[in-house]
Amino acid sequence: MKIRRFSLLIPRSSIKWQDEQLLRIASHFSFLLTAGLPLLTALDSMLKRESRSMKKRLTSLRHHLQQGHSLSEAFQQLGLPSFFLFCLRMAEMHGDYAQAFQTIEKYYQERIQMKEERRQLLRYPLILLTFILLTFLFFLLILLPRLSSFYASFHVPLPPLVQSILQWTEWLSSNGWIYLLLSSFLFVLLFGWLIRRDQLWFTRWMNSSWFPLHSFFQSRFTLFFTRALSILLQAGIPILQAIREMILSTPNRWTIPILQQIEEQLLQGKRLTETLEHCAFITDECAVVVAIAEEGGGVGDQLHRYGHLLQVQQRKNWERRLQWLQPVLFLLLGAVILIMFSLLFQPMFGFLQRL
Length: 355
Prior knowledge:
Blueprint (H helix, E strand, L loop, with lengths): L18 H16 L4 H9 L4 H15 L4 H6 L5 H13 L2 H57 L6 H38 L1 H9 L6 H21 L4 H11 L6 H12 L4 H6 L6 H13 L2 H56 L1
């Protein structure tokens, strides 16, 4: 089978798709295609129900399909997210579009649910964090300069820390914020240029033990790897061809060097288990699951189950971190108030002692 290059760059359309819209599209096609309806018939059925703006997009989709474009290419013209396009590209290999839309439907159902849970968990911590920032800015920009003028009128010396804060505030209130923004912008540009110039360098940097987000990228790559590879293996695609398709169609550019290293190891005749054991971006549990599956068969099914368990585990970890965030913010608020109180009234206590 000839492998075609599939670009996941953002196409001409700059339409912003909401998760609820993508879920509605996936649910509609999943239900009708599973019922046995042809693709264009399912699309026409959806055209009758949608709003005017959605009808315009779906009409454009039908036009691209009638021109001979594949389903993934037609959806790409509408600017759909890369994961949506990736699943459709995989479906074009194994021919089961209903399964692809079911995967997309389940993904966006879990995504919407997770976003709602995060929104509920983050609402109160964000209110606390906003209050802390506003309190700090009020102290820094309003209260501290006025109290320093008051102390200066009585010739009360300020602590060295307060003097340093005042100097930094004066510099920031003049043109300092412009230099900070410009420096941050240049740093982001330089970092992005380095990543685009050498993706392998970025991958090696994430692989280093001192990289603070290594575990995050490891779990994220493992989840992507298990999801994508399980879909392809369950469709009967050979392992090497599946890895090659993942390289060509991955939604995340930083995963390409990792997948290429896995492909090279497989081309050298190594088993998938041995390859994953030496990959720093694959969790140890995933390598064990693959080793058991290679002995007993059904690697695709086992990867699918493990991917689901990994996603549940990531969600629980996220919830646990957010639960710890609230007491940490309370402690931070208390520390900010204590520091402010000490800085403001320490000179006054010294002045009263001299009296």
